[in-house]
UniProtKB/TrEMBL annotation, chain A:
<dbReference type="GO" id="GO:0015833">
    <property type="term" value="P:peptide transport"/>
</dbReference>
<feature type="signal peptide">
    <location>
        <begin position="1"/>
        <end position="22"/>
    </location>
</feature>
<feature type="domain" description="Solute-binding protein family 5">
    <location>
        <begin position="95"/>
        <end position="525"/>
    </location>
</feature>
<dbReference type="GO" id="GO:1904680">
    <property type="term" value="F:peptide transmembrane transporter activity"/>
</dbReference>
<dbReference type="Pfam" id="PF00496">
    <property type="entry name" value="SBP_bac_5"/>
</dbReference>
<keyword id="KW-0732">Signal</keyword>
<dbReference type="InterPro" id="IPR039424">
    <property type="entry name" value="SBP_5"/>
</dbReference>
<keyword id="KW-0813">Transport</keyword>
<dbReference type="InterPro" id="IPR000914">
    <property type="entry name" value="SBP_5_dom"/>
</dbReference>
UniProtKB/TrEMBL annotation, chain B:
<feature type="transmembrane region" description="Helical">
    <location>
        <begin position="157"/>
        <end position="177"/>
    </location>
</feature>
<dbReference type="InterPro" id="IPR035906">
    <property type="entry name" value="MetI-like_sf"/>
</dbReference>
<dbReference type="GO" id="GO:0055085">
    <property type="term" value="P:transmembrane transport"/>
</dbReference>
<dbReference type="InterPro" id="IPR000515">
    <property type="entry name" value="MetI-like"/>
</dbReference>
<keyword id="KW-0472">Membrane</keyword>
<dbReference type="GO" id="GO:0005886">
    <property type="term" value="C:plasma membrane"/>
</dbReference>
<feature type="domain" description="ABC transmembrane type-1">
    <location>
        <begin position="108"/>
        <end position="320"/>
    </location>
</feature>
<feature type="transmembrane region" description="Helical">
    <location>
        <begin position="12"/>
        <end position="32"/>
    </location>
</feature>
<keyword id="KW-1133">Transmembrane helix</keyword>
Length: 633, 334
């Protein structure tokens, strides 16, 4: 027995020594008692465990350091931010810039005036030299995140004085400034005085980081599970100061783990903000924790993300080149079933190719209601209007039985939460369209004009709401006589990029959310970028669709001032009309994020009633939320 | 003695051959993966930014050159072995440019610490109780333990882990449910750190012990049940040898040989981590690292992790082979 004890003791000592030695070179974590809970905000880092936790050089591509650790939210800065929602003072924030980008008449020059009195966290003043250094360094260093963009587009960058920078472009581009516009990511400014001392910027870990944001790194887990940030004493010497003092003294980003663990940690008071949950997880947490709430205080709780889950046809596949076939497949879908299967009814549907989030309902969805209601199709010699504006009201009624008072009753509220309608399932019209396209039906089975069975492989991710959505889409098609087969692919995004799919359930439309400009996703839809079958398609025209009218709209956008909202909205409407008429993809719904906050320690989070920011806490613009929070303790 | 040395030399050569074949196989299998690490990295960069298509092409060229994926597979294989014998497994793609071995060194102590302790405890207790249950077949307590072991054994591991997580993290929240140590503890050789590590290891360790012990228990009980029918046990009992001596020196000892072999292989397997445990409890070990590497298309890191596991298992079997003659006098090297 004594030998056994000695053996166990020796093993324990060896193991403890191994672990202790492995941590020796890493920074130290503070005792938690130095981080009073009432001054500490704890958020879930959706990136999970960070594999290269000591790496903060976010200008190097794919280095394994995390961005959603607080690094890009709390420490970094650049000229502008765009919020997918309303923003504190409008969705466009001037951060390091004092105003919008100033272009010359033909959009070949962009001048930026910089804010004075902004200092790096080590006390050095931020000037135009930092901007010039950032751009020139990346132009000269392939492998950095923005090196390709800058080297392709910038002919010259110069500091006109300490606070003015001018970019001379290789070609006219009215959207060049969007490189420096942040929702989640952007061209962050580098501290020249740090990086110019480094031999190889690609191998420099930038640890500890020096930033322009109101927080500095306090400590981090050498295993990559948590990061602690501390408010700078001179937070008022950052661009954020214009919007107020950030409330928490400490901000912790930590790995939340799987859904069940996130729920438990929030219920136990160890997480204030959960990035995302399943619908079931959301329903459970509001029952378990009275301090927890989602974007909407009741059903459907979720925040509509500016991404648009959809049916993506591969237009280089012969099956989907006839508009009548694409419309027939649309009319086979039952939106009620899609909503219930994916989000258990908590979906925000959209019939048009714009996600129903941020300012888009006011910019596009509401103004387009009349046009889309009057939109007419012809099938079997009869004209009909496929749009049903009451369909989302029906879904609200369907879930009211289970969720009762949680479901809004006001029609405007219902439409904001559930969407403004969708296409009514119409199997007869779908059949007529297929027959006009040369298809034949034997029993309930459809055959293509070449005599082969009309079959579709539907690629979906292996899990999550999109998996459930795709499964229901395939089921709808199958019930209507199409031999649809679901193919769950862990690498669906990679396969989509090279066109290795027939139909994919994903998204190729992602907007700013808080601004009506569509260039964020639309510019790469131009036919000039169309890849050959099998070759990698540049993001985001993964449907590989081209159309002369589409090219015309894109070229118009390129010549239109970003800040001319009226002109941008008009072009956006033309795009939407083209998408409805041609139906190159079938828009379904916004990607609803079940972002949950606990009001146990902090209040003042953005909500549907006060939508001043996107609540998803890994988006860089979430830093503005910190200025609106109040401690409850 | 000469025969034994010759045996050792032959086994050492076999060991090298096994390691070479195993690691080469893992290299080729992982490199046949359809996931392109350059495209994977590009995907991460371009999904959330507005880089122009021309810029992506430029970035792709830079990444392809950086990662060396445009070289023929045979060149990559030769380069891999040249670097391998120098202890260099190349950079990780998911944590570029951090060397893969650095990531392994960071994760290894956690996995080895958790698994070696739990495996040894499970093995000792499971075999001891199994041996006693096999010999004292009418003992009620040991019978009850047998029923419990047979009841727990078929339950999938992740169910047991999840039940522990719910019970001690949610219903009666007294134990930490994730991580290797608390945020409030400074990593280092201090009582606070060691206590925090142990506290965070309780739930994952308990889940492993609960499931693993039953297997050893049932295996040992079956072995002992056969051994007690042997003549020498009957003779010992008839000769009046004390029962405690019979069970300890004659029965359990003789039943230990196959259990020792299995222990060695299990300990070797410790170096490949335990994926489900680490996923459920967010334990910072090799299993989590391996999952991240697979998901990230980081085949260099996958090969590095599997290579460590292959070497560990092969060496463990090698050592067992060498000590067999010492443990069991019936085995002779010819």
């Amino acid at each position: 027995m004594a030998k056994l004890k000695a053996c166990l003791l020796a093993i324990s000592l060896v193991v403890a020594c191994q672990i202790a030695l492995a941590q020796d070179e890493e920074p130290e974590a503070p005792p938690l008692q130095e981080l009073p809970r009432e001054q500490t905000l704890i958020l879930q880092n959706p990136e999970g465990t960070i594999r290269n936790p000591g790496w903060f050089n976010l200008w190097v591509s794919g280095a394994g350091g995390g961005l959603s650790t607080g690094l890009q939210q709390l420490m970094m800065d650049t000229f502008w931010y765009i919020d997918p929602n309303q923003g504190i003072d409008g969705p466009n924030y001037n951060s390091l810039a004092t105003g919008p980008a100033e272009y010359n008449d033909d959009y070949t020059e962009m001048t930026v005036r910089l804010r004075e009195g902004v200092y790096w966290s080590d006390g050095v003043e931020f000037t135009a030299d930092d901007v010039v250094y950032t751009v020139e360094t990346q132009m000269n260093t392939p492998g950095m995140g923005w090196s390709g963009a800058f080297s392709q587009q910038v002919e010259r960058v110069e500091a006109l004085d300490d606070y003015t920078v001018r970019f001379t472009l290789n070609a006219p581009n009215s959207r060049f400034h969007s490189i420096f516009s942040v929702r989640w990511n952007g061209a962050w400014i580098m501290p020249k005085h740090i990086f110019e001392e480094v031999d190889n910027v690609l191998e420099y870990d930038f640890n500890p980081p020096v930033g322009l944001g109101p927080y500095t790194l306090h400590s981090f887990d050498p295993n990559g599970d948590w990061y602690i940030w501390e408010k700078r004493e001179d937070w008022d010497r950052t661009a954020m100061a214009e919007f107020g003092e950030p409330a928490p003294q400490y901000v912790i980003y930590r790995n939340g783990g799987p859904t069940d663990r996130r729920l438990i940690e929030m219920r136990n008071g160890n997480l204030d903000v959960v990035h995302d949950l399943t619908p079931e997880g959301m329903f459970a947490i509001v029952q378990q924790d009275p301090t927890a709430r989602g974007w909407f205080s009741g059903f459907p709780y979720a925040h509509p993300d500016p991404t648009l889950p959809m049916v993506i046809f591969n237009h280089q596949n012969e099956k989907f080149q006839d508009r009548r076939v694409r419309w027939a497949l649309t009319l086979m879908l039952d939106a009620r079933a899609l909503s219930m299967a994916s989000y258990r009814g908590a979906a925000t549907l959209t019939a048009i190719a714009i996600p129903p989030t941020g300012t888009h309902p006011d910019d596009y969805h509401i103004p387009m209601q009349e046009w889309v209601s009057n939109f007419t199709l012809e099938a079997g010699g009869q004209a009909f209007q496929p749009y049903n504006p009451d369909l989302t009201l029906q879904i609200a009624d369907m879930v009211r039985g289970q969720f009762g008072d949680q479901v809004p009753t006001d029609e405007d509220e219902i439409r904001r939460a559930f969407g403004y309608g969708w296409w009514e399932q119409n199997l007869e019209a779908a059949a007529a369209l297929l027959e006009e396209a040369g298809f034949t039906r034997r029993g309930n089975d459809w055959y293509m004009p070449n005599g082969e069975r009309f079959s579709i492989r539907v690629m979906i991710p292996p899990d999550g709401v999109i998996n459930r959505l795709g499964t229901m889409i395939a089921q709808n098609w199958s019930q209507a006589g199409v031999a649809a087969q679901v193919e769950a692919a862990p690498d669906s995004w990679d396969r989509q990029s090279v066109g290795d799919f027939e139909v994919n359930i994903a998204w190729s439309i992602e907007t700013w959310g808080g601004h009506p400009d569509l260039s964020f996703f639309l510019d790469s839809w131009h036919s000039q970028y169309l890849a050959e079958p099998g070759e990698l398609q540049p993001a985001r025209n993964w449907q590989r669709w081209s159309h002369p009218e589409l090219d015309r709209i894109i070229e118009e956008v390129r010549r239109t001032d970003f800040y001319d909202l009226e002109a941008n909205i008009e072009l956006g409407k033309q795009f939407i009309q083209l998408m409805v008429e041609e139906m190159p993809v079938i828009p379904i719904m916004s990607y609803n994020v079940f972002s949950v906050v606990s009001e146990r320690y902090w209040t003042g989070y953005p909500t549907a009633e006060n939508p001043y920011a996107n609540p998803v806490n890994n988006w860089a613009n979430s830093r503005y939320i910190l200025t609106q929070l109040e401690s409850t303790q | 003695m000469r025969a034994y040395l010759w045996f050792v030399a032959k086994r050492a050569l076999q060991l090298l051959a096994i390691v070479f074949v195993g690691i080469s196989a893992s290299f080729f299998i992982s490199h046949l993966s359809p996931i392109n690490p350059v495209e994977q990295t590009l995907g991460r960069i371009t999904t959330r930014s507005n880089i122009s298509p021309e810029a992506i092409a430029s970035l792709r060229a830079a990444l392809t050159d950086m990662y060396g994926v445009d070289e023929p597979l045979w060149n990559r294989f030769v380069n891999f072995w040249v670097r391998f014998v120098q202890g260099d497994m190349g950079p990780s793609l998911i944590a570029f440019p951090t060397p893969a071995m650095t990531l392994i060194q960071r994760a290894l102590p956690w996995t080895v610490g958790l698994l070696s302790v739990t495996v040894v405890i499970t093995w000792l207790v499971g075999n001891l109780l199994g041996g006693l249950a096999g010999y004292y077949q009418n003992n009620r307590l040991l019978k009850a333990f047998g029923v419990l072991a047979m009841g727990v054994q078929p339950i999938p591991y992740y169910i047991v882990a999840f039940i522990l997580l719910i019970v001690f993290g949610f219903v009666w929240p007294v134990l930490p449910i994730s991580g290797g140590f608390a945020m409030n503890v400074r990593p280092g050789w201090t009582p606070e750190f060691v206590a925090s590590v142990i506290r965070h290891a309780i739930l994952p360790a308990t889940s492993i012990v609960l499931v693993g012990m039953g297997l050893w228990f049932l295996g040992m009980r079956a072995l002992v049940s056969n051994i007690i029918t042997e003549d020498y046990v009957t003779y010992a009992e008839l000769a009046g040898v004390k029962r405690s001596r019979i069970v300890g020196s004659y029965v359990i000892r003789n039943a230990m040989i196959p259990q020792l072999t299995a222990l060695a292989m299990t300990l070797g397997g410790v170096f490949s981590g335990t994926v489900i445990t680490e996923q459920v409890f967010s334990y910072p070990g090799l299993g989590t690292l391996l999952v991240d590497a697979v998901n990230g298309g980081d085949y260099g890191l996958v090969v590095a992790v599997t290579s460590v596991a292959i070497i560990a298992v092969a060496v463990a079997i090698f050592v067992v082979d060498l000590i067999y003659p010492i443990l069991d006098p019936r085995i002779r090297v010819e």
